[in-house]
Amino acid sequence: MRNLLIFLLFSVLLTSCEFFNYGYKYNRGDLPDSPVNLEDFNTEYDDYNSTAPTLGWLIPFCFSTNRNSQGGEFDVIYQPMNVNFSKETGELKVTNEYSNWGIYMEDYSVIQQGLNKIKTSGDEFGPYLIVDQDAFSGEFSFTLLYATDISGNFQINYTSNLSETGFSEPLPVEFLNSEFDDLYPTFNQERSKLYFCSNREGETFDIFFTELPGQEGDLEQLLSDSAAHEIYKDTILSGSAEDKCPFAFENVLVFASDRVGGFGGYDLYYSKFENNAWSEPVNFGAGINSESDEYRPILIDEGVTAEETMMVFSSDRDGGEGGFDLYFVGVRIE
């Protein structure tokens, strides 16, 4: 009888826990361990070079594609990314629909004005979108960095609506650019360093950075600085092969490389910032990398799970829509 009472009490406690978990069958989300094709975003053409600031499950997603030119020059386009995990079915959907965006649909759609500003007859690659929200008005402002080859070699430009009603005319980030190819800018977490890749020291690309003055929040003033900056090659992140597409998220930097020891073509690697330096890069492994090329990884805190981070990247592996496709996967970086 006593055992029966204990069992009944335990059952009541379990029921109570389910009640406080709102009665959902799936109270905890998971991201896939293997890459999943972002079918809503891909075409038969090349779709890659994405950027997405971390804003939860509503994500303003921008990426480079040559779909509008049917395989010709690359432009940066904007689409909403809606990450929806159902606690009733356990199903995770990543779509380019505006469902449940509410007022944010109008707030984020203004990004298209900036993309119209940067469109040229050349190629626009490696977008990097920064979103700031005014603490008092709640209004969003956007700064977009990217690389263009309209004048010859790739150089890094920016446009912003921080101080204007519309987006500013694109201007070069003079202290980053050289007579060589300079692409894929990304700030560290404190915005005290700006990383990018360049072939300025030889035939291959390496990862470089410059240190920035303490002007957090004043991006236009920071990026318009015409004074020369010391540019350093990060010798831990850079090797003897091609090291490209850096993207920093919190204390992690991800990038693409065709260095020896990979699984074929370009592979994806990560490094953690510890003790004031980046750790030796680690290959994400065969579960993510393939014999084909994996390119331009980014990390997003999408709000599905606290244990994993969503990584979006591009690949020309078999089974896609054609050319390079965009994929996503959950990663745990210890």
Low-confidence stretches: 1-21
Biggest sheet record: 5 strands, antiparallel
Between the first and last Cα atoms, what is the distance in angstroms?
48 Å
Instruction: Please work out how many helical segments DSSP would assign.
Output: 4
- Mean pLDDT comes to 89
> From N to C, what is the helix and strand string?
HEEEEEHHEEEEEEEHEEEEEEEEE
Class by helix and strand content? Answer: mainly beta
Radius of gyration over alpha carbons?
22 Å
Tell me what portion of residues adopts beta-strand conformation: 35-45%
Q: Roughly how much helix do the residues carry, as a percent range?
A: 10-25%
Which overall shape is indicated by the principal axes computed on the Cα atoms? globular
Number of strands: 21
What does this structure look like?
This protein has 334 residues and is mainly beta. Helix content is 11%, strand content 37%. Strands 14, 15, 16, 17 and 18 form a 5-stranded antiparallel beta sheet that branches. It has a 4-stranded antiparallel beta sheet with strand order 1-21-20-19, with no helix packed on it. A 4-stranded antiparallel beta sheet has the order 2-3-4-5.
